[in-house]
Amino acid sequence: MPTAGQHGITEHSDGRFGYVPVQTRSDRFTSVNVADFGPVTGREAVWKLSPVKKFTDLTTGALDGSQYPVESISVAGVSVAWVGRGDSRIGSAGAPEERASANAWSSFEKALAITISGEEAKEITVTRAQLGSGPRGAHTIIEAKPFSRAILILSNTGEARLTENVEIILGESANLTVVSLQEWGDTAVHLTNHFATIGRDARLKHVVVTLGGSIVRVNPSVRLSGAGSDTELLGLYFADAGQHLEQQVFVNHAAPNSRSRVTYKGALQGQGARTVWIGDVLIGRDAAGTDSYEQNRNLVLTEGTRADSIPNLEIETGDIKGAGHASATGRFDDEQLFYLQSRGITEDEARRLVVRGFLSEIVQQIGSPVLEERLQAAIEAELTESTPA
After folding, report:
1. Which residue among 4, 36, 110, 240 is buried most deeply as judged by most CB within 10 Å?
2. Are 243 and 133 contained in the same domain?
3. What is the helix (H) or strand (E) element at residue 93, kind and residue range?
4. 327 and 274 together in one domain
5. What is the pLDDT of residues 21-71, one digit of tens each?
């Protein structure tokens, strides 16, 4: 969206337009009201790489914002409950930058609130599996109280047409891992924006794992708002024929001595498999002592696939520890395959070993042994299905 002027840039002297382009990632227009956004055309910066015609019901149509079935096991120090739109935490972590997100915000009746307290380590899984085939909007709040510690797994299965917002709020010195696990059915469409704000000396590990669904778009936006705050954003995705898997990541360093690491890795196989990764990092003028690095790696397994990878870095202060970004997309390393085959391993098995090793870097950092084992098996199943008999 245009604005009246930024960084000393003003409108051209001919005066015909009255606007200049947005110059800083954090200055994008936001609103919780869907009516404030124009129709989605696919030419917008946030939609230009997305198949927008395939989910117009989520961007322009009416959404079912009612409560839905949720499964979870009771864990000490964790509360899972539905709260009204007047809950004070709603809107404290961020606001929509695009129409699908705003449509969900305008439509939900109650928000699912997951509240974590207590210094003892704990793990909880919240599962959604019965969202139906109609267009739906939803809202989730995740609050980690000061000094709390937990691993939270958000598991998504079955069929759905869903647009939603997830707010993640970390109090002082909280340590939280959030795993967003997409194992949707073959026709599912899922558009979700995760907004996180991290307090003083708090640490968020945010993991996105996408293995299922027709169109899945998970966009994490993290604001490091407290001094000494830390975030690690990890992503793993495996796109099969016809799948569109997208991630747009934004890390906003707004406080001094903050740290971020972003690592997303994906594999693509089959005709029409498509992945999109956009990584934006903004180091603000008040973020002295920032230490930041982002990277994206894609492994192309077959012909007919496409991987878009776009890292961006903005720095508004020279007083930083370090900042950088990297991106790479490529096929199998022939030398690795040759080495394995020279040891008596078949070509198909060698390829599976290379892919497992490539993606295991992400799986092994989750911190939940049971989930890590299950994901390794899921990756193996993906590779086995694609290997000729």
Report:
1. 240
2. yes
3. none
4. yes
5. 777 899 999 999 999 999 999 999 999 999 999 999 999 989 999 999 999
Verify that 375 and 234 share a domain, yes or no: no
371: exposed, middle or buried (Cβ count in 10 Å: 0-12, 13-18, 19+):
buried
DSSP track, 244-284? EEEEEEEEEE-STT-EEEEEEEEEE-STT-EEEEEEEEEE-
pLDDT at 388 over 50: no
Euclidean distance between CA atoms 246 and 275, whole angstroms: 6
Shared domain for 180 and 241, answered yes or no, is yes
pLDDT tens-digit readout, 288-340:
999 999 999 999 999 999 999 999 999 999 999 999 999 999 987 777 777 77
Q: Are residues 313 and 287 in contact, defined by beta-carbon separation less than 8 angstroms?
A: no
| Same domain flag for 310 and 210 | yes
Q: What is the pLDDT of residue 20?
A: 63
The residue range of the domain holding 356 is 333-389
Do 264 and 354 have their domain in common? no
Contact 97, 248 (CB under 8 A): no
CB 235 within 8 A of CB 265: yes
* Residue 238 and residue 337 share a domain: no
Amino acid at 52: V
Provide the number of structural domains found in the chain: 3
What's the N-to-C CA distance of the chain in angstroms? 52
Percent of the chain whose pLDDT exceeds 90: 82
